[in-house]
Amino acid sequence: MKKLAILLFSIVLITGCTAVRIDTKSIDNIVNVVLSKDNKLYNRVGKGYKYYIPRGVTYIDTDNLNDVLYSEGNYYYLYIDAVSYYYKKDINYTENPDAYYSKYLNALKEGYLEITEKDGKYKIEFFYNYAKIEACVDKKNLHKAILDSSYILSTVKFNDKIISLMLKDDYFTNKEEKYDKFTPKSNVKIDKNVLEAKK
Fold first, then answer.
1. pLDDT band, residue 107 (cuts 50/70/90)
2. Which residues pair with 67 in a beta bridge?
């Protein structure tokens, strides 16, 4: 029994089980820790993309590639930029010295986080991994909104085949033929004699 306990302890020690504690008092720390991990989680699938919604955040609705999420009285508006992803557009962002917080992000992927304060409300504009979250929150919810947004944006994964199909010019076009039941086709001849004979 003693050997078994030592063996189990050794296995746990060798495998190096680690837990990462996130200091949620610092925006820099929240963003750096979450975005530096290659998260493979997902629990929400859209048209050409999937992502992870953390505990405490609720999915509300989708309109095209825009999802509405809700957490503790705050709405998060998630926009998936599939066109920029498909064409691999560069991120052009200049840090704003007048903002409450403004930073260009270059973790595993590129993006930016800008927070502006007006009348006690904090507008978050967080772009990362060709997806963007916008929210307007009170100061007490600011760090949680950044944490939730970091998890969501870091887990966005695209389905290249579906996006390629969606962006083709002929994907949404239909083969339609105009039909009017009151006018005959031009190549059809009506024989008056046949009509008169039936009378």
1. confident
2. 62, 78
- Tokens 């916008």 locate to 134
Considering only residues 134 and 4, tell me which one the structure prediction assigns the higher pLDDT: 134
In the chain, the N- to C-terminal Cα span, in Å, equals 107
* Residue 77: both structure tokens together: 């508006």
- Residues with Cβ within 8 Å of residue 158, at least 6 apart in sequence: 48, 49, 82, 85, 130
What value does the mean pLDDT take over residues 63-80? 92
Asked if residue 109 has pLDDT above 60, the reply is yes
